[in-house]
Amino acid sequence: MIVRENRLILAHVWVALGAMFVGTAFGLLQVYSRAGAHVTQFFDYYRLLTAHGVLLAIVFTTFFICAIATYATYSTIPRVDRPLWIGWTAWTIMLAGTLMAAVEILAGNATVLYTFYAPLKASPWFYLGATLLVAGSWLVMADILVQMHAFKKANPGKKVPLPSFISAVTFVMWFIATLGVAGEMLLLIPWAFGWTSGIDVHLTRLLFWYFGHPLVYFWIMGAYIIWYTVLPQMLEIPVWSDSLTRLTFLLLLPLSCPVGIHHELMDPGISPVWKILQVGLTLAVVLPSLMTAFALFATFENAAAQKGKTGFIGIVGALPWSNPAFCGIALAMILFIFGGFGGIVNASYSMDILVHNTMWVVGHFHITVGGPVALTFLAVSYVMIPKLTGRRLMTPRMALAQVFGYFVGMSIMSIGMHVEGLLGAPRRTATLDYGGSSTLAASWEAWAILAAIGGTIVIANIILYAFCLASCAGIQSRGETSFGFAQAQNPEESPWWLNRIDLWAAACIVLVVLAYAGPIWQHFHEGPIYLAPGYRTW
Amino acid sequence: MHVPRFEKIWIGISLATMAAFFIVLVTLAIASDVNPPSTDGLTIDPAKVSQTPPFDKPGLHQIGPRLYEAYYVGQVFQWSPNEITIPAGSTVRFFVTSVDVVHGFSIPDANVNAEIMPGWVSEVEHTFARPGDYLIICNQYCGAGHANMYAHVKVTP
After folding, report:
1. Which residues are paired to B107 by β-bridges?
2. Residues A24-36: tens digit of each pLDDT
3. What is the CATH number for A274?
């Protein structure tokens, strides 16, 4: 690939990593505050919590997924004189939106956390910035679809290369999902500017979570692109199954959007019937998840078979554990197993009451997005960034220690948070002493301290990561790094319906209508269409 | 499309697991009425909470032997009433609403956990078998003083 395309991909990576460094630093202050370190006199806990959530969950992930999906598409659909203006326009709009929102958050004008629940009323520029970030990412989708179209025109009857195809599915899902938050912004922005006098609190929550859960699958699909196609390249084997990979991504399309209400199980104004319907649809994600587990174990088995190794010990021993990129991804997968278990608890209708809005949920998403997804991105960047810049990683051993350290730190932090949550400790709360009025609250502190210890280890390894990356900057590091996106040996075998994103997108829309018609009808039929004035309570 | 035998078995296991989870949840919901607080259509005008009985006088009302209704109003950053006292073995039906932003009504030691939205009344019931001092907290971020929003349920022997 030529350098001018690399520059666009790197531009996304740098913004992602910048957001990651700032966001994780804020996270450290939060775990200390909760552990009783009396640090909130020095900073505004909720302002930095908002920044932590937005920078990591939205900015870091979205920019990195844009990088990986664009890279996968460009490198498997070769073109001369590829127009890059769509990609650069997208990046510019996304960056402008990010800066706009970040300035408002850090200035204290948007201390509404990353869920921005109305009637908390942030600065309109915060909502506008977030909208630009999302709208810019739609252009990334447009770019991927343009490349796919060009491929189809040049290669009639041939299947779109797998890495491009799954990148396109990821972004089509993202587009359908973000329509929800875009709709919410159409209500929030005029209200924040003062053009409308009130906001429909219940409707904004429905729209937010319509977007909020597929957002989670967007992160996972970003990691899946790497697990399914980059990992085999590292192991020097083809993708295990073309059709299974396509089916996994296509299944995530209809199963992503019609499930958001499982985040609102404790909400009034939504009948139990609609809640349990979406719980059922949520559980269906077990299928693509376990198919992925199957495919990845099969990939490991194939890689070992190439070296003549079989059996559990033989397979584990044959894997390249000294490669920090591989090792980081493998550790990320281990975290995801536990993340998946916890997720089933959260989604399980009647069990959710035990953990809803507790620290358990925070522990859960730190071993899903904070573990599997973030660690996959950091690990892959050890080969992707050197490849894009024409360099080599000069500190492979330190990088190996880094991915292990991150894994250990995140595991410890997550265990502390999960137990805190089971004991009832609330999330999104700066201090946990409740005026010393409760022995139960006092029992949370030990686990909050464990979380702080884990958080400290994570931060130490983020600093180590920056150091490893900086080692690529010197003159002596110039050289070639192996990185790429693998494909299956026989892609033409998979059936035609696994090459049609439109049919699956249509299925998604049908399911969304079925799952949301009830709650929306209920909202307008029996709910009070109460328009809240807006509050600045921070 | 060739699907290996082990893959077919594995997909079968996945589908069966999924179905089993769902059947358990639906059975519990229907047979034992294990449902999250959902309150269909129990609504209130947030601007008129202080004039709407029984929320004009938040507090505890005994409606039967060891059976109570408790009306709570959330407002940044406090719950009213601040403290109630009941004997052990009492069942309390909590009715909670907000006059301003979204709050979270949670008794971590009990299965009481509900989002409180302005405009709606959330209903959740619990039987306090053991005596003790139960902490009520706000578990949804509501502003700068969120961590100081709490109340108590005193359960006497």
Report:
1. B112
2. 999 999 999 999 8
3. 1.20.210.10
